[in-house]
Structures are given as structure tokens and as C-alpha cells.
Amino acid sequence: MEIEPILSELSFDSLPSAAPEALRVDASTLPLEGGDDPAFGTVRWKTLFSADRTATSDMVLGIAEFDAGGTLLPHRHEPAEFYLGLSGSGEVTINGTLHPISAGVALFIPGDAEHGVVAGPEGLSFAYGFPRASFEEVEYRFSAPAAE
After folding, report:
1. What would be one Pfam family of this protein (predicted)?
2. 111 lies in a domain?
3. What are phi and psi of 27, to 5 degrees?
4. Residue, of 105 and 148, whose pLDDT is higher
5. Which of 3, 31, 112, 140 has its CA 20 to 30 A from that of 78?
6. Is 16 a domain residue?
7. CA-to-CA distance for 133 and 148, rounded, in angstroms?
């Protein structure tokens, strides 16, 4: 039996890679981002899972935080998204339909659906996620230019 011809036909590029390790992220240790770009509104966020920052793949997970009356301006992006209310309350408009959100309420936002958020008087926080490896892969397209 000739070994060399058999080995030359193998491709190690097609072998499955090792499964990723489990990962624990403590959101209280992460900095808040955002809040200073009028194109987005006043939303601030923490990125918990994103392949450009963590040893994760196939999903992005973050927490959005809003002060009383805070906003995430109407926008779209190709991937679907979910919100899961953690505290406070607010309103999410998805394709023109108003959806209240509060602790324990989950919302599914279809891909390319226009959506925006307005926090209630006590503020709002929710978890959000995308079926993408990295947050950088999600291209936000805002519906109207921010007021100057």
C-alpha cells in the first residue's frame, strides 16, 4: 500500500475546527458605548459577545441602556434581531406598529424591518442579539438624517 498518494488527497482545510470554549462575560465590568452620536439617538450599549472582541462565533449579544425618554432612532439592518426587556419600559415601533417593552417582554424584529425605540419615564434596558459573528457585520441604515 502506498501511503504518499493517500496523504496527498487529504485536505486538512476541510476538517472541522475544534469546538469553541464556553465563555462567561460579566456585563457589569464592561464600559458603556454610544450616547454621543446624534445619528443613533441617545442609546448606550454594552457588547457582550462579538467575534471581534470575544472568543465567540455565530451570534452577537449586547445590552442597550436608555435614560428616561432616551431614543434609538428608526433604522434597518439586514439580519433579524431580538430584544428582551430587562428593566424599565418603553415603546418599540416596528414597521409602523407600536410594541410596548418592559422586563420579561421579548420582541422579534424581522430582517430589514424599520424599527426605533423610545424609553419610558424610568428609562429602559434590554438585551439584543443578531445571528452574526460580529457586531461589525451589522450595517445600520437610518431612516432620516438626525436633526441638527
Report:
1. Cupin_2
2. yes
3. -60, -30
4. 105
5. 31
6. no
7. 34
Q: Would residue 94 count as lying in a domain?
A: yes
Is the residue at 5 inside a domain?
A: no
CA distances in angstroms from 118 to 38, 41, 43, 111, 147, listed in the order given: 14, 10, 9, 20, 16
Q: What is the pTM of this model?
A: 0.83
Instruction: Residue 80: give its domain's CATH number.
Output: 2.60.120.10
* Residue 6 in this model has a pLDDT that exceeds 50: no
pLDDT (0 to 100) of residue 21: 85
